[in-house]
């Protein structure tokens, strides 16, 4: 497997923050909010996290794979394409749309 980029499979992400906490360079940032689920009759209400934002700063990333290894839901996976170089640092900050497995690289 080529370790060129990291893809986010958004529907698997539970916003647990493990990837951001375990990253040695703190290149991952995410925000979320809690929503209450409608319980089945007789059950108590439950809350779950909903992902609002997710980004990776490729100017900081070491491509070590710690975030991928630590993700309990396999929401982060190695992507095949390398992250293209950029003339500006701000262009190396990719959000969740750019981290989708089917997003164009470059």
TrEMBL record:
<keyword id="KW-0874">Quinone</keyword>
<keyword id="KW-0479">Metal-binding</keyword>
<keyword id="KW-1003">Cell membrane</keyword>
<keyword id="KW-0408">Iron</keyword>
<feature type="domain" description="4Fe-4S ferredoxin-type">
    <location>
        <begin position="52"/>
        <end position="81"/>
    </location>
</feature>
<dbReference type="Pfam" id="PF00037">
    <property type="entry name" value="Fer4"/>
</dbReference>
<dbReference type="InterPro" id="IPR010226">
    <property type="entry name" value="NADH_quinone_OxRdtase_chainI"/>
</dbReference>
<keyword id="KW-1278">Translocase</keyword>
<feature type="domain" description="4Fe-4S ferredoxin-type">
    <location>
        <begin position="4"/>
        <end position="33"/>
    </location>
</feature>
<dbReference type="Pfam" id="PF12800">
    <property type="entry name" value="Fer4_4"/>
</dbReference>
<keyword id="KW-0830">Ubiquinone</keyword>
<keyword id="KW-0411">Iron-sulfur</keyword>
<keyword id="KW-0472">Membrane</keyword>
<keyword id="KW-0677">Repeat</keyword>
<dbReference type="InterPro" id="IPR017896">
    <property type="entry name" value="4Fe4S_Fe-S-bd"/>
</dbReference>
<protein>
    <recommendedName>
        <fullName>4Fe-4S ferredoxin-type domain-containing protein</fullName>
    </recommendedName>
</protein>
<keyword id="KW-0520">NAD</keyword>
<dbReference type="InterPro" id="IPR017900">
    <property type="entry name" value="4Fe4S_Fe_S_CS"/>
</dbReference>
<keyword id="KW-0004">4Fe-4S</keyword>
């Amino acid at each position: 497997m080529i370790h060129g980029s990291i893809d986010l499979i958004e529907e698997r992400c539970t916003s647990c923050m493990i990837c951001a906490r375990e990253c040695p360079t703190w290149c991952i940032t995410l925000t979320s909010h809690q929503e209450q689920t409608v319980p089945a009759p007789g059950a108590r209400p439950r809350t779950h996290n909903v992902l609002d934002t997710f980004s990776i700063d490729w100017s900081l990333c070491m491509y070590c794979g710690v975030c991928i290894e630590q993700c309990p839901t396999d929401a982060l996976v190695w992507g095949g394409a390398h992250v293209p170089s950029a003339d500006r640092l701000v262009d190396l900050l990719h959000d969740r749309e750019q981290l989708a497995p089917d997003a164009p690289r470059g």
